[in-house]
Amino acid sequence: MKKVLITGGSGLVGKTLTRLLLEQGVEVHWLSTRKSASYPNVTIHYWNPSKLEMEEAALGGVDTVFNLAGANVAMRWTEENKRKIMDSRVQGAQTLYNYLANSGAKPNIVSASAVGYYPSDYNKLYIESDAPNNDFLGTVVQKWEEAVDQMTKLNLRVVKLRIGIVLDKGGGALGQMLLPFKLGVGSPLGSGKQWMPWIHVEDLARMFIHLAEDSSASGAYNAAAENQVRNKEFGAKLAKALNRPYFFPPVPAFALKLVLGEMAFIALMSTQISVEKVKATGFEWKHTDLLEALEDVIDRY
User: Fold this and answer.
1) Per-residue DSSP letters for 168-214?
2) What integer is the mean pLDDT of 230-235?
3) SS (H, E, C) 236-291
4) Looking at 21-60, which runs of residues are DSSP E strands?
5) Using CA of residue 126, residue 128, residue 131, residue 135, what is the dihedral sign?
6) Residue 47: how many other CB atoms lie within 10 Å
7) Half-sphere exposure of 261 toward its Cβ, with a 13 Å CA cutoff?
8) Cβ-contact 241, 295 below 8 angstroms
9) pLDDT at 267 over 70
10) Which residue, among 6, 5, 87, has the nearest Cα to 50 in the 3D structure?
11) d(CA 225, CA 279)
12) What is the pLDDT of residues 91-106, one digit of tens each?
């Protein structure tokens, strides 16, 4: 890769991806909804996906588009926020499609997706060909992927990463979990039996780059570590990484629902995903042990 365009570059994964690409000497461009946005060593172009608008010049000479844009799902699921979660993903992909169709540019498309595609299940190991869930989150991911898949009509190679729980202290699920554990009151959520398909943020960014560079890669890939764990074990490892106790009783599911509303589903959902497909491409994880991965992201901040 010589020149890339990233949507959602200022987010959790985008910043790490940007850093790794810049270290490789790749020219990095972002699309941003803020006209005054700036970031070291990155060229930023304005776009407004809610109006399906973007600067056409952003696509010039780009060989890969990394599509990471999407509103944070970790907010109370009011009807307005549900629209934001859906529209930010679908409209972003639709904007890219419209401008790519008119520009004649032929970049590879490597897009974020999510494990929310699959139904919650305590026992099943999901592979990429399994049927999707039809609840709110599953519907969002399906429509997101459908919008991205339109780009195959333009004879573009399209890759989608169904991302699990990203470990980075700077934000995301781990950032929200840290406070109670730092205070020594961390505990399992619900039954504690739900699977947590974690992945270190640097491994995820490396996976994006790896699949962009593999010309034979296409379609959906599950994106998590190989040794996924259940919530109870995840909490125990997090407490150990922070040198804090872990003996409080589980937080009941009904209490989570009272506090978080419908969004409590995210904390209670159980998804164990197979990563054999991405492993078969030759991808190798650097962070395979959960405790080491947690200690790494915590020590870096």
Assistant:
1) -TTSHHHHHHHHHHHTT----BTTS--EE-EEEHHHHHHHHHHHHH-
2) 96
3) HHHHHHCCCCCCCCCECHHHHHHHHHHHHHHHHCCCEECCHHHHCCCCCCCCCCHH
4) 27-32, 43-48, 53-54
5) positive
6) 22
7) 9
8) yes
9) yes
10) 87
11) 10
12) 999 999 999 999 989 9
Residue with structure tokens 């996976």?
A: 207
Distance of CA 259 to the CA centre of its chain: 24
φ and ψ at 178, to 5 degrees? -65, -40
> How does DSSP classify residue 60?
T
CB 150, CB 97: distance < 8 Å: yes
User: What fold, for 3-167+199-225?
Assistant: Rossmann fold (3.40.50)
Residues contacting residue 43 through CB under 8 Å, at least 6 positions apart:
27, 28, 29, 30
Report which of 152, 145, 170 is spatially closest to residue 221, judged by C-alpha positions.
145
The pTM of the whole model exceeds 0.90: yes
Backbone angles phi, psi at 162, to 5 degrees: -85, 95
